[in-house]
Amino acid sequence: MLLEMKHITKVYGSLYANDDVHLTLEKGEVLAVVGENGAGKSTLMKILYGLEQPTSGEIYLNGALQRFRSPHDAIAKKIGMVQQHFMLLNPCTVAENIVYGREPKKHGLFFDREAAVRITEELCGRYGLHIDPRRRVGDCPVGLQQRVEILKVLYQDADIIIFDEPSAVLTPQEVNELLRTMRKLAEMGKSIIIITHKLHEVMAVADRVMVMRLGKYIKEMPKEETSVEEMSYLMVGRRIVERKVAPQKTTGTVLDVQDLVLAGSDEKNILDHFHLHVDGGEIVGIAGVSGNGQSELIQCLTGLLSPTSGKILLNGKDVSGQSVGQIREAGCACIPEDRYLWGCAAQATLTETAIMAHQYRPEISSKGLLSGRNTRAFTQSLLEGYDVRNSGQGQKAGELSGGNIQKLIVAREIEQKSPLLIAAEPTRGVDIGAMEFIHNKLLEKRERGDAVLLISSELTEIMSLSDRIYVIYEGRTAGEFRKEEASEESLGILMMGGKLHEAI
Amino acid sequence: MKPSKAKELAGQIWRALRQPLAAAVFGLLVGAVVILACGQNPVTVYIEMFNKSFFTPYYLFSTLTRATPIIICAMATGMAWRAGYINIGVEGQMVTGTFAATVAALYIPGPPIFVGLVSWIAGMAAGALYALLPAVLNWKFQVSMVITTLMLNYVANNIASYFVTYPLKDTSGDGLALQTAEIAEGLRLTRLSSTSTFNAGFLIAAAVVLLMIFITKKTVFGYESKMGGFNSSFARYGGTKQVKVMMITMALSGAIASLAGTAEVFGLKFRYADGMLSSTNYAWTGLMAALIADLDPAGMFFVSIFLSGLQIGGSAIQRSLGIPLEIATIIQCCITLFVSVKLVFRFTRGKARREEAKGGAQA
Amino acid sequence: MNSAYIASIVNSTLRSTTPILLAALGSAVCSRVGVFNIALEAQMLIACFFSIAVNYTTGSVLLSVAAGIFSGALVGLIVAVLQVKYRAADMVIGTSLNLLVQGGTTFLLYLFFGLRGVLNDPKLVSLNKINLPVIRDIPFLGRALENLTILDYLCYVIAVLLFVYLFKTVSGFRTLSVGINKSAAESLGTKATRIQMRMVVLSGALCGLGGTALSMGQVTMFTENMTSGRGFIAMAAASLGMSHPLLTVLSSLFFGLCQGIGVALQNVIKSQLTMTLPYIATIVALVIFSRRGGGARAKKRTGGL
Question: Is A468 helix (H, G, I), strand (E, B) or coil?
């Protein structure tokens, strides 16, 4: 037994993030820890990596009791972690990032950057993971950045490598490559823990599976003895009904984006002659690896950025380059991709959060004066109608859980009753209950005959909700599918910049 | 009002007040240590200090007179800060506005009502314009408002100093003092007490407080500026016109700042004298009051009066006991530091809760 | 304009640069680790006071300089604890400390010496004036470098040392990494908060040395609030120098030049007007070198408020 975690409990306030959890790991084994958002997987791994201290419980390595007060301690015991959000120094080179923490020195004091390059080349050779050591990390695509993270962990000579949701930002093809790398490392004697909620990855790579739900250890079993169905049942605690969305007739075009260009700081355009259209009564999805222009597209459509050229027709009227207020007035609402950056202010009350972009409606204000009674009534209707758990309208938005604040934002934007709704990452980081609720609300919006533009990095979300799907790659429209024509493979090839006929 | 409601209200007031109160106690404790270091008995000094600031009518009137510009400066600061614009140039805006108002009062002919009106408006316009300058530079060139507003304080003080030293110096009397001539009798604000200098300027300050409460609680502009202060990306995404909000905010802040000094000239000093608004630290005391009260208008009003009392009491003990009046500055700065540390406890606790919610959601 | 006149402007430029440069380096190391320190003014002013106070009591130049550095570092430590460790709002801490030191030094001046506002005494010992043997006889250079103190030279050495430390050493690399991505640095076991606190204390020490240069350089005296905004000018200098030690030397020299010209013009234009020059120059320089799209910091709302 290489690693044992016993009776791990972690309490935040009244919340049990981990409740008496056990975990074991053998040498050369790939263990998958699965569970839905909020199940406590990340907390467990943070404890193993020394980022969090358990409230109670013990960690044993080769039978010896350990105490990890910081990642430093864990690294010293040859535990490494590839974080979900990359922990990289973007302005520095690949080599500098890899040797960070154990830098080669000259004269005992100075940083030997040439030696760092040599070390990196040697390391790449040994594990067959290739990358230019002198390249700036910020210039590398996401897949390569993840490779830097893996090389970092290998340079620290880790025997146990934790992967936290490693496939969230990758294309299906990159995911396959990553899974191959993980198997290869396991064969070389490394022990691997992968945290994920994507069950087909588990089936592809793991030797053993451990399921968590609501902070508790549920069950573990060898991969051969389980199935995707069983795991998903254990994760959620009930059977999930596959959603069937009935086709419906669309009404005329609501949003028509023609030849949209947004110039970048270098010659490359961030949005490169992008086009799409969305009709009333349909949900149109945009699939793509994040960082291919989706954020900028949303910002151009909502008026936060002014496009360099091209047309954005909203109900036939060109709104490109207009202000956010004008575009909202013209009939566009938006669930923003980052709820804490764009969607709310942590110190604002729920009332203040709820009336944003409603503040000029006649029932909320007249002649620049707010109606206290009407704002409260309006806020109450949102909180109740969208099942937002709260302790009163004076509560601060930052005190709500991620799912609840997201429901409030969804409520606020849907209640704009606009002909177009842009939903960007509407369910990122929320639990399954909130996710289903939000999906239903989006479908209701579609049934009312409004247009919904859905941007998501979760391919399954796009494929289950959308009537039509566009693929965005490097700011271009790389492909367009009807729902029934789309497959994960064909979308994935386009998301990587490939061409369909070449791949087949 | 039902008893339960009254209780709830009392609870609210207590929650709002307990941080500043605790900080005030700690601040006074630090002051006590300093007084001990001066070889005096803190208890007697504090009794003397509070007797000669709040508990005798004459000194109470002095305190309220002193509080007038401080309250207004606190409002000017609060107006900008709550919208996220770190205006530490209230002093410069006050000097510019006041100087403009005084010059208008001295040199524009006509009936007092007309001249008075024009002077006050001229002062507000000058203060507003002086505050708009850093706002425009921030909007067009992203120049840090912290630095520009502070630099403009020195510019305003030096230029006003130049004018009262040379072209506009009062040549009547001995001609030694660096000051302008006195404004006409008809322009002066009414005295509210026959025995002291307490004057209608205080009513202007109270009106500014009411205006501020109205703006922050009842108007769309107040809502939008507050959201911009909390999270400017959120406000922008919601379609607020941020440039407009910023310009109105800063103009209002500068205009209010001008009232502080204009009230001082028209109600108390009747002339502009070199350094009269900077050596008294009105703007900085107002800033301290705004920070202690966490930018809440009613809170800023009371804290300003409290800090003014410390200063009046401070100068009393300087005269009678020989303890420098800077003791007041030391106490008030310690209060702010303690308040900010309290804020930290609240903030870190809130943050821990948020992170836990987030951590839980990600796990 | 003859060369002697220019040489005297160069001379006063060099003297005015020293305090600004030292404080600007202090500001630069703070922003390099992601701390927005606006208590520079306090860190300088307290050093002005304690260097002169110790000077007056002991008559030792060395002890005075040490007192200046130490007192500046002490204020830096307060900033580090409150702002970095307890994450209090930077503006609140900065403005409170600036005012506290302003009031506190006036208070202590009265308490210790019974004086109001100014401590100026013939018994105060100034820093040694250096007139380099050969150079002093070269016509232009001799005048330009006349009567400079050791600090006027030392500040450039410190700038170079800081550059070497930050960009060439391992420890400097770790320090910079904290400012680039604090959580990345922490995830690899770097004690980021401790590094940030250390840099803030270092900035206090640098500002302390700058304050000492102010009170014991051109003149040897303490006056109430004698820094008069230099801490903020230093912030501007650091921001124009992109927090790079060597570029900060250039920007500080520019602000020193503005003060030097201000001094030189005093005979032509009334002093109240020439005194506005450094402040106006600061604003103009920030406008000219503004990078559109940068400077978001200016509008960012601070911490706990």
Answer: strand
Would you say C119 and C222 are in contact if contact means Cβ atoms under 8 Å apart? yes
Can you spell out the DSSP letters for B135-170?
HHHHHHH---HHHHHHHHHHHHHHHHHHHHHTTT--
Of residues A338 and B16, the one with the higher pLDDT is A338
Are the C-beta atoms of A50 and A72 separated by less than 8 Å? yes
Phi, then psi, of C264 in degrees rounded to 5: -65, -30
Of C170, C184, C187, the CB nearest to A103: C170
Q: Check whether B349 has a pLDDT greater than 50.
A: no
The parts of chain A modelled with pLDDT lower than 70 are 239-242, 501-504
pLDDT band at residue B362 under the 50/70/90 scheme: very low
Handedness of CA B263, B269, B270, B271 (dihedral sign): negative
A400 vs A406: CA distance, rounded Å:
9
C304 contacts on B by Cβ (under 8 Å): 340, 343-344, 346-347
To which residue do tokens 């500068």 refer? B254
Q: Tokens 């975690």 appear where?
A: A5
Q: Do B347 and C304 touch (CB under 8 A)?
A: yes
- Quickly count helices (H) and strands (E) in chain A: 17, 24
Q: Which of A17, A327, A368 sits opposite B360 (nearest CB)?
A: A17
Closest CA to A263 of A475, A30, A6: A475
pLDDT at A262: 93
Helix (H) or strand (E) holding C3: helix C3-32
List pLDDT tens digits, range B274-292: 999 998 899 999 999 999 8
The string of pLDDT tens digits covering residues C7-50 is 989 999 999 999 999 999 999 999 999 999 999 999 999 999 99
